[in-house]
Amino acid sequence: MTVTCCHVSAAEAPDNDWLWRAVNAPDAIASRNDGKPVVVAIVDDGFRTSHRDLVEFIWRNPLEIPGNGIDDDGNGHVDDVHGWDVSDDDNDIRPPADRLAGYSHGTQLAGLVTQLARRAWGEEAPSMARIMPVKAMSDMADRPYVREGFAGIRYAMEAGADIIITAWGVNQVTREEGRILDEAEDRGVLIVASAGNLEQELEQYPAAHRSVVAVTALGRDGRKIEKAAYGQFVDIAAPGTDIVSAGAVSDSAYETLEGTSYAAAITGGAAALVRARNPGYSAVQVDACLKSSADPLHDAPVELSGKLGAGALNIGAAIDCALLREPGRRESALSATKGYLHLRAAPGESAEWLIEPAGEFKGIRFWPAPGEREAMRGTLRLYPAHAAGNDRPAAAHTLAALPDTLFVAGGSARVALQPEADAPAGPVLLEYEVETIDFSKRYCSGTQRVDAEGVIEDGSGLNDYAPASDCKWLITAPPGQVVHFRFLEFDTEAYTDHIYFFNGAGTHEDIMAGFSGPDIPPELTTWGNQVLMWFVTNREIEGKGWKAEVTFRARTP
User: Fold this and answer.
1) Which of 86, 172, 92, 83 is CA-nearest to residue 130?
2) How far is CA 332 from the centre of its chain?
3) Beta strand pairing call for 213-218 and 190-194
4) Intra-chain end-to-end CA distance of the chain, in Å
5) Which of 76, 196, 523, 546 could pair covalently with 229 via S-S, beta carbons 3.0-4.6 A apart?
6) What is the 3-state secondary structure (H, E, C) of 96-142?
7) What pLDDT shows up at residue 249?
8) With 90 as the cut, is the pLDDT of residue 482 above it?
9) How far is CA 522 from the centre of its chain?
10) So what's the pLDDT on residue 69?
């Protein structure tokens, strides 16, 4: 388990005005939490609880008497007054005094949550939101590795956290770790996690668990930052560069930060504002508010379609949450690649939703929100978006008997609701998301084997080749012969997208040649009767591709 961290540089004082404007963070909101603060747990490396941005916000366990050496609340942790160190099994959640700079991540995350709370509630902020520090990296760790992160999640949910922020990840989870995430969902605890800082389509956990809000990072220009992970598992995007927050080296230290960790902290803080403004909302409803209010990412490249979540975080709209305030209109058009439908029509009326996001997709999948099917009464029908009114639906079910998942093939769908006359007035939610396409494999993939003369090409035809292409051709001539290449067409991004030729069957063999750019390469004759041809590109600036004539010739001495 690695900490998804960032480059850090010193800064004199927090100056995040651009950030809060970018996410539409309100500078004043009314309190409706009935005097009970929202508890935001952060599971990370350590917390400078005396920092001026944190000191008033630190959670206090109401069932524990400080300093008496007794486990007053019977939770197995003695004197866990302000949280717990699950790695060192003690109540000291501060960074080790001699390693402050290396244990600053948790402090940075907490500082962003408290900044947002201060902006929203001013001097009342500490009574509206509390930070529960959960330290999950040992004081003696030899590298920044949150080893006990899932144990930290368990502590936080059992201690009463409403929201848990996890800015770290692993490639897969054990059965027990999966049970912890499922239990958090059952308890109504919303986990917000960073998507990761690897520039690739790679799931990490807990972010990729279905009930967890996975957050990727945007730059000031509203585009995904280069280092941020992406994929269908991502739920929402938030700023993750040029972020200023508290540092651990002193009580007045600040640092400038970059990465999906900070996008997750901002989104976790937004979830706290939504819950505080609407204390009756469940974790699913908070998630629905965040996704349904996100702003579209119009400039995302096609290969990222459906892989950056519902859109860019909009905190003001999430707090207002029009999705839950209004019944479904007779016709509603939705362009987000994931979100929720509020299955409630105006009295005496049916409702219909057209889900038509920009891009190309395999289809759209739907899930009833947990725990709400028992109250549903009516009929739901799902169609391909442009089906005629008399066409047979792709699926039709009574609301009370909806299956665990429904699917409509294609890039758009139409959902029709016919409620019963006495249908309940409460919110009934249906979650949806597109199923994405791996555009890197659109025209070619894997290794093709060629043992006859002819013409080979990248496969894109008249289109530009796919971004992030990674395709190979293993060409074998009869014994005693060699392979000769004559390019008929060639157009690739110069110095970036290449065709390599390896003397043999693998990329470990000697490279005979490599070509890149817009010009037809010279003819090439191999050294032996077998050659591996590798076409590899980046994710930017595609060309028209290439076509080559392959012939076999007798080997010359």
Assistant:
1) 83
2) 26
3) parallel
4) 56
5) 196
6) CHHHCHHHCHHHHHHHHHHHHHHHHHHHHHHHHEEEEEEECCCCCCC
7) 95
8) yes
9) 45
10) 93
Cis peptide before 368 (omega within 30 of 0): no
Residue at token pair 């490639």: 171
Beta bridge partners of 454: 550
* Residue 422, pLDDT score: 65
Q: Are 393 and 372 in contact (CB under 8 A)?
A: no
| Gap between the Cα atoms of 26 and 293, Å rounded | 14
Long-range contacts of 221-226 (CB under 8 A, 24+ apart): 222/22, 222/297, 222/299, 222/312, 223/297, 223/299, 223/300, 224/300, 224/304, 224/308, 225/258, 226/199
Q: Report how far apart, in Å, the C-alpha atoms of 241 and of each of 7, 195, 225, 262, 526 are.
A: 10, 15, 8, 8, 48
**Quick one: average pLDDT of 90-102?**
94
Which among 380, 335, 326 has a CA at the least distance from the CA of 354? 335
DSSP 8-state code for residue 82: S
Q: Which tokens hold the place of 473?
A: 């051709």
Query: By C-alpha distance, which of 497, 17, 21 is closest to 295?
Result: 21
Region of 360 please: left (phi>0), alpha (psi -120 to 50) or beta. beta
Q: HSE (CB half, 13 Å, CA atoms) of 306?
A: 23
- Using pLDDT thresholds of 50, 70 and 90, give the confidence band for residue 390: low
Q: Could you tell me the CA-to-CA distances from 331 to 346, 353, 416 in Å, in that order?
A: 11, 6, 9
Confidence of residue 467 (pLDDT cuts 50, 70, 90): confident
Name the percent of the chain in helix, strand, coil, to the closest 5.
20, 30, 50
Q: How far apart are CA 541 and CA 538, in angstroms?
A: 8
Q: What is the pLDDT of residue 143?
A: 83
3-state secondary structure of 484: strand
CA dihedral 6→9→15→19, nearest 10 degrees, is -20
Q: Tell me if domain 2-316 and domain 328-437 are identical in fold.
A: no
Q: Where are the domains of the chain?
A: 2-316, 328-437, 440-554
Given a cut of 60, whether residue 330 has pLDDT beyond it is no
The answer to which of 165-174, 381-390, 460-469, 485-494 has the lowest mean pLDDT is 381-390
CATH no., domain 328-437: 2.60.120.290
User: 479: closest CA among 555, 417, 390?
Assistant: 555
DSSP states along 417-443: EEE-TT--SS--EEEEEEEP--GGGSS
Domain 2-316 has CATH 3.40.50.200: yes
Radius of gyration of the chain from Cα atoms?
A: 27
Token pair, residue 95, equals 């960074």
What gap in Å lies between CA 82 and CA 29, rounded to an integer? Answer: 27
**What's the rounded Cα separation, in Å, for the pair 154 and 345?**
39
Sign of the alpha-carbon torsion through 250, 254, 259, 263: positive
Q: What percent of the chain has pLDDT over 70?
A: 92
Helix (H) or strand (E) holding 149: helix 149-158
User: 320 CB contacts (<8 Å, ≥6 apart)?
Assistant: 293
Residue 542 has pLDDT above 80, yes or no: yes
CATH architecture of the domain with range 440-554: Sandwich (2.60)
